[in-house]
Design goal:
This protein is mostly beta strands. The chain is about 10% helix and about 55% strand. The chain has 1 helix and 5 strands, in the order H-E-E-E-E-E. The chain has a 5-stranded antiparallel sheet with strand order 4-3-2-1-5, covered by helices on one side. The N and C termini lie far apart (about 40 Å).
């Protein structure tokens, strides 16, 4: 399924984004606006930033998989 069709199911979820320049990023998909994807990304300590990525910059978007190990790590 093309990423443009997937995003409506992924809003409010943690996602990984592959960019056309070979880089990638991750964060919570907040929505879309004027051919842009809006993602809130962790910066450092308790700071987050809202980032905008133009549609032409995006190669793919995928939701994070669930955690398989539900037992606490000690």
């Amino acid at each position: 399924m093309p990423w443009q069709e997937k995003i409506r199911f992924l809003i409010g979820q943690p996602v990984g984004i592959s960019l056309t320049n070979g880089q990638g990023t991750s964060g919570v998909l907040c929505g879309t606006s004027d051919r842009e994807v809006l993602v809130i990304e962790y910066m450092y300590q308790d700071q987050f930033a809202m980032k905008q990525y133009d549609f032409y910059m995006i190669q793919d978007i995928n939701g994070f998989p669930p955690c398989h190990n539900q037992q606490p790590l000690y």
